[in-house]
Known about the structure:
Blueprint: H1 3-13, H2 18-21, E1 26-29, E2 34-46, E3 49-56, E4 62-69
Antiparallel strand pairs: 1-2, 2-3, 3-4
Amino acid sequence: xxxxxxxxxxxxxxxxxxxxxxxxxxxxxxxxxxxxxxxxxxxxxxxxxxxxxxxxxxxxxxxxxxxxxxxxxxxxxx
Length: 78
Ligand SMILES: [Zn+2]
């Protein structure tokens, strides 16, 4: 009975294309002392989204995190 739920179902039917959202390519790494290419790693699954960690591709240090809203991941029925 909710328009919001209907809209989220539509989004949920789309194939996951998360790479398009993760456009961060370089972040400052305190160890390398310069902006370095990073890769994302899923850190936590939260009730309302997911927390990703950015790791320096050179030294593997964590250089940041990103929270992705769960709006594209539908979990209805619980
Ligand atoms: Zn580094």
